[in-house]
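Wed. Picked up where I left off yesterday with Alanine racemase. The coffee machine is broken again, so keeping this brief.
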Amino acid sequence: MPASIFDGGFDFPQMVVHRDALEHNIATMAAFARDHGMDLAPHVKTHMSGEIAELQLAAGAWGLTVAGTRQARTVRGFGARRIVVANQVVDPAGLAWAAEELAADPGFEFLTFADSVEGVDLLARHAGERPFRVLVERGHAGGRAGCRTLEEFLRVAAHAAGTPGVEPVGVAGYEGGLPGADEVRKYMDTLTEALEHLRVRDPILSVGGSQWFDVIGRELAAVQARVLLRAGAYVSHDDGYYRERTPFNRVDGELRPALEVWAHVLSVPEPGLAIVGMGKRDAPYDEGLPIPRRAGVTVLRMQDQHTVVRADGLKPGDLLSFGISHPCTAFDKWRVLPVVDQDYRVVGTIRTNF
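Structure written out below (tokens, as returned):
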């Protein structure tokens, strides 16, 4: 029988991945995309794990999304045949690598974003035998990157269409920073408007998808394009930020938290106050503090190597369990993570490559 994480072979603190939740989330999101006529290109910057990427691809993912060419190199090593760089790529070394990969493998697909004439020209200067296939990004006021107006979008798209070494193939957008469903619906309208003006064969429309995939599924149902969702956080979900924001709070289905951190109580220096041996290097804190799974425990603050909690009845040596908030800054704190079953027996290993 596989060893339990509590059998003495593991140091603490320790983050674990629950196998059942991980597999459930991958299957659930794959089914949602399939049932709504969309393709999934999960954003692997969340986990940067070959083991998880393999599961996502086996579940039917169209390809994998990354944030830059450094991640693209790693993901290519996972065996990815299709990679979306959900960003403007301007790094010469990264573009040289991509051009070499495209030349070496006719079956390799590489998509990147562009939102400026200058960005298109940078791509063209580093293109090789095959052109860089580009999604022209349409943004929104106050958002991240992306052309702010339709006129600007059309100018960039026309320049890409007339520039050797670059091939516009669709539209990209990111809706994750918008405050509500009404704003997302309006933004989807701007993306479909941009798509209607883009005269390309078999167009692609790529959107984020982690917080609003229900709205996206409805709004883009009639779009004549391959709709690519780049959702990433769904794979492990969480007990905080995404638990509150998942579209499955509004539609049928559920995601389950797959990450959990165990840590010892180190000190009880005052009545009702305890110091836990888990800090900012072990668990995320940027979108909410860890969530205690023991009743009566409240996290007050985190330090580099410690977490201060308010609780009664704790003593040094006690083990506490915590859920996490925001998986995208959880995986990167660990290079090796045990995968456990419901009894915390180790049934596998996940390695990250940040």
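Quick read: The chain has two domains: 19-238, 254-351.
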